[in-house]
Inverse folding.
């Protein structure tokens, strides 16, 4: 089933860079307002809102066409507000069950530098000066607890996942054995696709309170195991209605974590 990836973050936060990487990796179609606006109306169009809506309707139509053909689609928008994220999640879910937000984060001063540099040096970029940048920033609503959708974070602490919904690809289901060391996995263990952990690999996840082997799973992250002698964090993912004590988490993950010094993080930043 095709997937719709919703790129989220303010201008200059690196959304397009990440979107292009995902598009290349997955051979997905990337659709973005900014490029289509410039292509159709130039980099400083009048009647911006009306023209923006025309482009928006066009992108929605093209998204539906590509999903019907079985192609993954990346909507490289921004989705600055909780309301806009809800609107587009509902739209995307009407086309496919696989919908994931990719949230990019960045220091605001760094984002400003990127945007002003782009305006100065890229003739194909929308015109945004310092005043416009900070006027637009007033409209931006960072990702928060009210955004309860499957999510991947970029350039953000692993603890941001706590309290969030994540999709896990399970490559070591319950009852399988470690290829090198031979021990049995007493739970489902996998990774969050299109992420990067400290060791350069995708971010791993323990799935607790799921008693049967699964090959993929969508659940809520309730904690992070942060290893002190290995650059590799692990998410703790459970069914949405489940909560576990620190002792229960430590007990269920001890088959592997007993070999590593670690701390269990339970509160999001």
């Amino acid at each position: 089933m095709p997937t719709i990836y919703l790129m989220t973050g303010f201008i200059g936060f690196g959304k397009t860079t990440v979107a292009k990487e995902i598009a290349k990796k997955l051979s997905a179609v990337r659709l973005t307002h900014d490029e289509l606006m410039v292509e159709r109306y130039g980099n400083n169009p009048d009647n911006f809102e009306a023209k923006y809506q025309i482009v928006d309707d066009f992108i929605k139509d093209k998204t539906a066409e590509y999903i019907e053909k079985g192609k993954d689609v990346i909507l490289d928008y921004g989705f600055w507000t909780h309301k806009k994220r809800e609107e587009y999640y509902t739209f995307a879910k009407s086309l496919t069950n696989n919908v994931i937000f990719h949230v990019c984060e960045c220091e605001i001063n760094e984002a400003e530098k990127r945007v002003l540099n782009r305006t100065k040096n890229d003739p194909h970029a929308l015109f945004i000066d310092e005043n416009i940048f900070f006027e637009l920033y007033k409209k931006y609503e960072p990702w928060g607890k009210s955004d309860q959708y499957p999510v991947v974070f970029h350039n953000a602490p692993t603890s941001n996942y706590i309290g969030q919904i994540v999709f896990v690809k399970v490559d070591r289901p319950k009852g399988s054995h470690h290829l090198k060391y031979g021990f049995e996995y007493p739970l489902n263990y996998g990774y969050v696709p299109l992420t990067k952990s400290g060791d350069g690999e995708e971010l791993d996840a323990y799935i607790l309170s799921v008693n049967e082997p699964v090959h993929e799973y969508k659940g809520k992250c309730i904690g992070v195991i942060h290893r002190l002698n290995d650059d590799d964090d692990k998410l703790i993912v459970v069914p949405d209605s489940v909560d576990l004590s620190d002792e229960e988490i430590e007990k269920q993950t001890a088959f592997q974590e007993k070999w590593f010094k670690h701390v269990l993080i339970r509160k999001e930043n």
